[in-house]
Structures are given as C-alpha cells and as structure tokens.
Task: inverse folding
C-alpha cells in the first residue's frame, strides 16, 4: 500500500495555528450556521491513523466533548511516560526518531497518516516526510502566536492542486509535494 503523510490544518492569515496564549477559539469565530466541515469528513475518510504531538493531544483531551477520533491515534512525546488512563484505549504513546515511529505505525498496518500539531508538522517537514497539506486560512491577522512553519535546511516544493472558498471568507488550499 502506498504510504502518505498528510496535513489538514487551519491557520490565521499570518500563518499561526494558535494565538500567543496557545488558544484556538478564533478558529470558530466566523459564523458557520450550517456547520460546514470544510472537507474534513472527506479528508479523514482517506486516513488510516493520526500521528500527533503531545501538545495537540493534550489540547484535544481538554475539549469539552467526547473523543473526536474513530481512527487510531499515535502520540509523539519525549516527556510523557504514559497516556492518561482516561485515554489509554484512545491513543498510543510512541517514541523514537520519526522514521522509527513511521516504521512502527506502518508495521501495524497504517499507511495513510494524518500528521497533526505544529511542532510535529514542522519536524516532519524538516525530514521531508509530508506528502500533502490542506491548509485552511482564516482571514485574521493574529500578529503573534504558534506558527505553522519553521526554518528548513532546504526548500521543499509543493504544488497547489485545489483551492476552495467556504463561508465567503475562508480559503482552503491543498498542496502536494513535488519531488
């Protein structure tokens, strides 16, 4: 089976995934009375499992809702020693280099992965391990916060293969890695 690592994330117009306090409430500040999912269900249907960083995992755990994922979740962390008891059946802690982690996940039969979390995405990009990115741009300038991208040692080329506009305000671009 073909192995793919994909990103599906929203940013501010100036490229931040969270504000300076780590909050993401601004992501939901544009009225969406029909609860349009902006392609998420279609995206997640193409995914076998999620790989996310500790901060993203802890953010999801703090949401006032049921666990949102029906697919296996692998949590990258060098500081966690175990998954909190409440989420033991929901997520698996993985450690090692990204290539070692991907080998473990692929060995379990999961090949089409959703890579989530700012530092996790940045780490995957630094090792040229992202095949596709869907980036939804919320038209706010936050001025500071947690950026989606960080420094790279060399340029990575992507091609925009699709653009959509939602709610007459939100732009979503899908980029595929060109190698």
Result:
């Amino acid at each position: 089976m073909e192995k793919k690592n994909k990103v599906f994330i929203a940013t501010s117009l100036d490229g931040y995934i969270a504000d300076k306090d780590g909050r993401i409430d601004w992501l939901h500040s544009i009225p969406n009375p029909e609860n349009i999912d902006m392609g998420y269900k279609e995206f997640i249907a193409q995914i076998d499992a999620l790989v996310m960083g500790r901060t993203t995992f802890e953010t999801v755990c703090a949401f006032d809702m049921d666990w949102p994922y029906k697919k296996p979740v692998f949590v990258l962390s060098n500081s966690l020693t175990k998954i909190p008891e409440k989420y033991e059946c929901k997520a698996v802690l993985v450690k090692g280099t990204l290539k070692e982690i991907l080998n473990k996940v692929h060995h379990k039969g999961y090949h089409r992965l959703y890579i989530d979390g700012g530092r996790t995405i940045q780490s995957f990009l630094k090792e040229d391990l992202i095949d596709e990115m869907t980036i939804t741009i919320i038209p706010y300038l936050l001025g500071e916060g947690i950026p989606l991208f960080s420094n790279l040692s060399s340029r990575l080329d992507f091609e925009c293969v699709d653009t959509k506009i939602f709610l007459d305000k939100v732009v979503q671009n899908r980029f595929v890695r060109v190698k």
Q: What stands out?
A: The longest strand covers residues 4-12.
